[in-house]
Amino acid sequence: MDKRKITTWIMIAVGILLLIWDIIVAANDMRGDTISEIARDTSYRLWLLPWSIGGIMGHLFWHKKSEEKWNVLAMITSSVALIAVNLVALHSEWTIDWWVPLTVFVGGFVAGHFWWPQQAKRLN
């Protein structure tokens, strides 16, 4: 079995396990223990979560046609700047509304496209 098939099966298995676990915790009486609730609540405190998810989505689903290399320094610098602003926000009286994690996600999506591009060649 080649590595592409192994990777595909690992992704399917992890997805199924996460789905089963989410159904189990959604069926109990406790609130706030599903994957989506934890991710939502965490995204208000730790902005690196929506940034990273956005970066991965931008990398995977918004391809570049050129042969440009990705800019490691830009990705690291923007991530460090985000962490610094996040730390200031956590230790101050800033009100974090729903639009903050959404804006960070969109920023990560754009960064994932421009600074971590996947080439647009099809393998199938």
Protein model, in words:
The chain is flat. The protein folds into two domains: 1-33; 41-124, no CATH class. The longest helix has 24 residues, at 3-26. Helix 3 crosses helix 5. The protein is mostly helical and 124 residues long. 69% of the residues lie in helices and 0% in strands. The chain is built from five helices and no strands.
CA-to-CA gap between the ends? Answer: 17 Å
Structural class of the helices, strands and pairings? Answer: mainly alpha
Largest sheet: none
Mean pLDDT across all amino acids: 83
The succession of helices and strands, N to C, reads HHHHH
Number of strands: 0
| Helix percentage | 55-70%
The fraction of residues assigned to DSSP E strands is: under 5%
Instruction: Count structural domains.
Output: 2
Stretches where pLDDT is under 50 for at least 5 consecutive residues are none
The best one-word shape is flat
Number of helices, counting only DSSP H or I runs of 4 residues or more: 5
Radius of gyration: 18 Å
